[in-house]
């Protein structure tokens, strides 16, 4: 059995033909051209689907699409997805069925990253886990009884907007101190730049003082690996904030396995070890049993595999 998975972002449309047991058969990536409007984006997705099926005889059962924004319970409509101009409340599933002829279901991209991990990644060993995606922003997905937990309207698991300090920094949350303000890539870079500016003798200052806009979390990781104590300290504080958020997630959901993915998570032990230490320190003792943080190495592929898996299970 095969299906098509789509990961729709503001910059690129990633597409894959996926076998239910074997995984990827064929993949592609094309620019979204989001600034040209939703109809053009729909046409671009249809083109990506057509290209995937070129010279492939087996017909897929349908299309699963992961995209930013809040998705309706019937998996057809998305509300106000970020980075996609012109998209407000849109029935994406019907629009794409009209263009491709295939049935279509949609899901939140971070939710589908969790689902991809559950079907093809490290999450395959767990019936229940919480995924935290640490990228440009912070997203998440909750897998409960081997299914995506979606809440009452389909919009559960906006984990990046859990608030840990009402007096903290700003991000895309409606108030200060959401976890995204500490762990989203651009917010982490902003905090790091403010800290490095106060340490003019540090090698990071000497490298980036002329243009801190170029500073990214990966630079902190490489500096930390080389023994730069300032970088280690910045990543440790970031990991501690993640640990506080994890305490909240576990106390609410009683799910002890945490899967972490995304570019910021590539900082590895420099973020994940302090996160684990902090969580163990502040979790109520009964919740510490079977607690663990696991890194998901699938990266962006998890959302593509999750989108195809959604088609397998819903269509």
UniProtKB/TrEMBL annotation:
InterPro entries linked to this entry: ATPase_NBD, ROK, ROK_cs
- Give the protein family: Belongs to the ROK (NagC/XylR) family.
Mind telling me which PANTHER family this protein's record contains?
Answer: BIFUNCTIONAL UDP-N-ACETYLGLUCOSAMINE 2-EPIMERASE_N-ACETYLMANNOSAMINE KINASE (PTHR18964:SF149), ROK (REPRESSOR, ORF, KINASE) FAMILY (PTHR18964)
Query: Can you name this protein?
Result: ROK family protein
